[in-house]
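assembly run, all chains below
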Amino acid sequence: MGQSIWSSMQQKGYSRREFMQFCAAAATVAGFGQAGVAQVASAFEKKEKPAVIWMHFQECTCCSESFIRASHPIVVDALLDVLDLNYTETLMAASGFQAEKSLTDTITKNKGKYIVLVEGAVPTADGGVYCMIGGKTAESILQTVAKDAAAVVAWGSCASNGCVQAAKPNPTGATPIYKLVDKPVINVPGCPPIADVMMGVVTHLLVLGQVPALDSQGRPKEFYGRRVHDTCYRRPNYDAGLFVESWDDENARKGYCLYKMGCKGPVTYNACSVVKWNEGTSYPIQSGHGCIGCSEAGFWDNGPFYQHLASFPGFGIESTADTVGTVVGVATLAGVAAHAVVTNIRKRGVIAEVHAEDQKES
Amino acid sequence: MPMSTPVVATGNATPVPNGQPVEYRRIYVWEMPVRVYHWINAVALVALCVTGYMIGAPIRMFYAAEAYQQYWFGWVRFIHFTAAFIYVFNFLARLYWGFVGNKYSSWAAFFPLKRSQRQEIVDVIKADVFEVKMHGPISTGHNALAGFIYFGTFLAFVFQTITGFALYSSMSNSWLPRMFNWIVPLLGGDFGVRFWHHLFLWFFVTFIIVHIYLAFYHDYIEGRGTVSSIIGGWKFDRVEKRGK
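ok done. output:
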């Protein structure tokens, strides 16, 4: 305890050059730019490294998998090495009572100072029996851990919006973290979130010691402020009206816009088209597949993935609002036409009635 | 039929005694701002429906072109957004006129608060839907049922305005669209907002069909210039001869 990141790195044999590289990378992913490198270096030299608790609830660990694949391995190494990552079910060596002791020790020793990273949703149905660790429900663990935390980060769509667990009919009552914790939660949605985005959020917390600017859904604006569509390299094709019509057509080969193939890029807020994945190699649209909107709330229920409008509930899987609308429109036209026919059949009678009334009055 | 009589509602086929015409009074019902509102709204709404549908289901383009050579889908969206702004401010102007205009355009015409208005709703349903009472007095301005349905369309206007601006806000830094951001989480993200915004397109398509038809229908059964009134502003009211 009480060590800074720099002193801890020195002990592990990192050079000053490597430390500065790490600071530069961290400043970049956190969005501080070149001017922020000095600030980052200074913070990492002087500030005590914070204790971190990484909880795993209803999830598939894809967030952790993503995290360890950040494009700047030194950042991940350094963070995983130098953070006081005191409790994480997936990576820690301790088990059983030792692990539980480590958790309670971290909470009591760092009251109000430790950071909680939560991966996974919390089941609330049937008393929370669907996810229990060490005989306690996920919800009670979360409440204990979050109570004295300096910051709570919801990793991935499970923790941010429920993801697949919360998809209809949501049998376990899976609930996102922000609905259970009565302090601000940083939502970092995505299935999984982009590794560099996760790095950026953690770095921001470490360097500035404060929550980054969040949007109305609790997501860091720096990474979720724009839609995948806004910075997509296929965007010019969208504006030009050049669309892929089927997966095997000439337009697909030419790399036209995937909007008509159900790409959810226009309704999905994420940094995929800027940061990309796997060290900036590619992202789904670049690989020829539409975005499925994995960082948006309820994306499992907004299907099918290959339609950009949802199926209309109760009208079969292929019927969109357009199908329903067309039926209603045609029915209205038919009704109006039938009405016109009836009116014309009644025409003579109506004219006679009106004239009879005129006569009566005059 | 004497040509000197100002307005005469007689037909040749029916036995109305000559020389006893029915008198009508000319009434200036739709003032200029109301008519201008109506036609700006009509043009904007049609533009919004057509471009809105095209945004949902873009036309297939056959010719081989590169993206930098054309911008037609961009133009479709541009027309949609421009028409939307015109339509919103036009609607706000109409709301204002509902408080300063004549009694036919007043806000009170859109709510069946009076007993007589509720009775008229029944009468109009009898005339329009069942075609059993196709003559008799109907309000000179909006009939009570039409007024109430227009109130419903105003709610739909408001809904489309909120959802439309909410969708637009991610492309804009101006305060107006950003005022409506709050709807996004309520409807489950941009996807849900877009779904509902798109669904209401069909409400307007249905409304346009029924509205135009009923305007013609009432022009026919009322016989006092319903259709031309939205161009010139005048309608005709039968002069009651109670003295006889």
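The longest strand of chain A covers residues 51-56.

Residues 321-361 of chain A form the longest helix (41 residues).

not gonna interpret more than that til we talk
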